User: Fold this.
Amino acid sequence: MSAAIEHSELKTEGQASPFLTVRDLLLLRTAVGGATRADLQRDVAPLLASRISGLEFRRSAELALSTLAGALLTTESKGRLTITDKGRQVAETSFAASRVFPTTWSDAKISLLLSALAASDTPSIRKAIGRPEGLAALVVQHHFGKMTARVLSPADLRSDLAIIALERAFGNKIKTGLGKGSGLPAKAGRLLAGQLFRSPREIASDGKLIIQLACEVTGAREGTAPALELAILRGLLVPKDESARTQPSRPQRAAPPKRVPRAPTPKPANDRLPLDETQPRTLPQVVSPPDMPEFCQAVVEAARPVAEGWPGNQKAFISLVWKAIRNARPDWGLSEIAFKGMLAEAHRSGRLELATADLKDGRDLKSLEDSKILYKNTVWHFVRVQD
Assistant:
């Protein structure tokens, strides 16, 4: 078992994985001076914050630490983790981007940045990494396939980006005439380079153009050196779908047994339907709300039979009209509230006329109560029927 764990940890230069796992980060952090669990939480957890919660990190870290200890790569004494000679050999083989193995966590992160950007470990590159403009330039150069042996100036990089934008637009047919010293105006170059954003835009200066492109490439929230560094390091980690695949699968719950359908209950001899129930079932009606002209015509037709009064002043209780509409047009799917709302709108638009009751006569108080519609400080009770 220990040999198998050691084999999974040891990564030669030809077999190095492009992604880092929690175990890789813990091994590297322990190798640069040792660490307590609090140190690991402070230094390593932020790199994984966008992928797992703090609780999930602690669980993954404990599992990884036990694996490292089982492979004899680390030891623990009085709460402090220390790398073994064997573990240091594994770490030096796995993280060999720098000329010298890092001695501090800051140097280790620089080593990871150099590896992520395929950059050389030179004093000028290290100095550039500490500045947002330099780090952003390296990000953009690496993303668009430019050499990262040195950091290009914002103007040179803007010219290169403009050519890339033109090549993408014209099928890589632009070969000469727009390179360095071609005389392409800076504003025109920035306008062309701005087409490389997911949402093309125009940027005011070369420096802002490079930094904003780097932020989009890495997913950084702001264009500062720490934010870009954090985004680059997070990009080195195992993708979410990849990490989910490496987790041991949990045993799935057994599916509940299927219920055996019971035989149909026999019908009594005097049932109107035959036992085989071959008669077609009535399909549910499709709800289709009416338009306003159709609605008003149906309301008038429903109000005429129940209207009261003398010729020229016939009125029907709204509650009686609602009952008639509900029974005659179930396909409309109207509720009483919707029906009264459409009545109020029809009255407002002049298609129907509503009337209010004289509450002094006190007749049929229930119908009055069921019929009322509150509209602009007025209470309507009747639908007026025109002759």
